[in-house]
Amino acid sequence: MYGANSSSLTPIFFILNGIPGLEVAHIWISLPFCFMYIIAMVGNSGLIYLIIHEEALYWPMYYFLALLSFTDLTGSTTFVPNMLCIFWFSLKEIDFNACLVQMFFIHMLTAMESGVLMLMALDRYVAICYPLRYSTILTNAVITKVGLATFMRSVLITIPLTFLIKRLPYCKGNLIHHTYCDHMSVAKLFCGNVKINAVYGLIAALLVGGFDIFCISMSYAMIICAVMNLSSADARHKAFSTCTSHICAIVITYVPAFFNFFTHRFGGHTIPHRIHIFIANLDLLLPPTLNPIVYGVKTKQIREGVIKLFFREKDILN
Is 152 exposed, middle or buried (0-12, 13-18, 19+ CB in 10 A)? Predict the structure, then answer.
């Protein structure tokens, strides 16, 4: 079970136990998760394809949406197939390094999603407050730069988590009571004090989530001020309607995340561990599942693009 190096005991593999206490129901629990994953794969892949092939969607708002869809697609794929293997085939072993890679991508892509939502809020701010300069401010070069900056921020904040996991010996076994390699779930197997891991995890959450929520709040505060100054009720309604999809995406992403965050830290003795794990999985899977549906239903240009693409493919087949 363990491989020795010069300074510590390192497990060769971990065992992901799924949802403890609900092992007999794993098959039934897997069905909604599998269904959600299929919707996430089809919905996000469809959005990306549509944005690439439909010229009417060659706008900054949709470029950011494509980036959000790609983040959701890769984020859900980092853990759902492995989770389904645990539920369906009891394939619970995961290599130590594979566990670290999974942990890195899950936390990095979670930070990336938060950053993209923040960029989308800034996009809505520019579109509503500076409509005549929208295309000159958010050029392709600017979009590329802010997208890369958001990606690099996510990577640089997540890298220390990997090194913190490797810094101490493991002496509490290799059984992880989770469906994926979560930072603190792995850290609890350390022989030593995990306080530095908990503190850094909290700091990282504040640096990413706190900063992004502040920027989103400020953007919408200025959007509301600008919209309220419009003389026409029609114009106000039209301006607000361009934000509804993004606001729904914010709620879908941050409400489960906050619930998971606070129950994990302050409800540890009152909320069963299996509930924590169930919520943690929903936290990662709900946004990829619902975001394409929200944007497909509430965005006229995307609906029209789907219809146009459908009839175009039908004409080709005929």
Answer: exposed
Contacts of 141 (CB under 8 A, 6+ apart): none
As beta bridge partners, residue 2 has: 11
Q: What is the DSSP string of 141-176?
A: HHHHHHHHHHHHHHHHHHHHHHHHHHSS-B-S-SEE
CB of 40 closer than 8 Å to CB of 76: yes
**Count of CB atoms within 10 A of residue 96's CB?**
20
242: nearest Cα among 61, 42, 23, 69: 61
Burial pattern 203-224, b for ≥16 Cβ within 10 A else e, equals ebbeebbeebbebbeebbeebe
Cα-to-chain-centroid distance, residue 167: 27
Q: How far apart are the first and last CA of the chain?
A: 60
Q: What pLDDT sits at residue 4?
A: 44
290/297 Cα distance (integer angstroms): 11
* Tokens (6 digits) for 17: 């136990």
Q: Which element (helix H / strand E) includes 9?
A: strand 9-11
Burial 174-196 (b: 16+ CB within 10 A, else e): bebbbbbbbbebbbebbeeebee
DSSP secondary structure letter of residue 190: B
pTM: 0.92
Question: Which is it for strands 13-16 and 175-176: parallel, antiparallel or unpaired?
Answer: parallel
Q: For the chain of 318 residues, list the mean pLDDT of each consecutive stretch of 10.
A: 53 90 88 96 95 90 96 96 94 94 96 97 94 93 96 96 82 89 88 83 90 96 90 82 91 88 66 84 94 90 82 59
Please name the amino acid found at residue 261: F
Q: Which pLDDT score, from 0 to 100, does residue 20 have? A: 85
